[in-house]
Write a structure and sequence with these properties.
This protein is α/β, with parallel strands linked by helices. The protein has helices at about 5-15, 25-30, 30-45, 55-65, and strands spanning about 70, 75, 80-85, 90, 95, 100-105, 110, 120-125, 130, 135, 140, 145, 150-155, 160-165, 170. Strands 3-6-9-12-14-15 form a six-stranded mixed β-sheet. Mean pLDDT is about 90; it is low at about 190-194. One of its GO terms (molecular function) is serine O-acetyltransferase activity.
Length: about 190
Amino acid sequence: MNFFARLREDLVSARAHDPAARGDVENFLAYSGLHAIWLHRVANRLWQRPHLRLPARLLSQFARFLTGIEIHPGATIGRRFFIDHGSGVVIGETAEVGDDVMLYHGVTLGGRSLAKVKRHPTLGDRVVVGAGAKILGPILIGADSAVGANAVVVKDAPPDSIVTGIPATNRPRRPEEHKPAVDPAEYIDPAIYI
């Protein structure tokens, strides 16, 4: 997918995830979550080249200064990722984030170990993480799950879970509960931008 198609996809995703989003121009200029993601993509490309890791880290620190969102350049971020209100979000080096994931402000995807191994969480596709939640360690939050605000999560959660509390516990979603799904049909076909 080329640069402009990806940019357009991100703008459509912002509108789909945020009912307050009023238009692409405003979102492009004013959404710090989008700015953080775009700068992360550049930093991540640099990070893939070992001789460019220092510039990657410097760019990620600039992004943190600019947006209040810290994403390590080594983190793996999926498509249509959206950070709403952004400030205070921290995503560690070995974190993996699936497609169509949404984080609110103050979320930490952090580690519990100093060892140089996978030490940050993995979020499956379509996961929503509430404000202030802390997801710590090399755990897996299954696809289509929701993590409640201020939860402290240190254990895996299967797909279709609701995860809440300190320490967090999970339960299956009930059929009547809203699933955070963004209709892919709403996305502009990237092929028209190639």
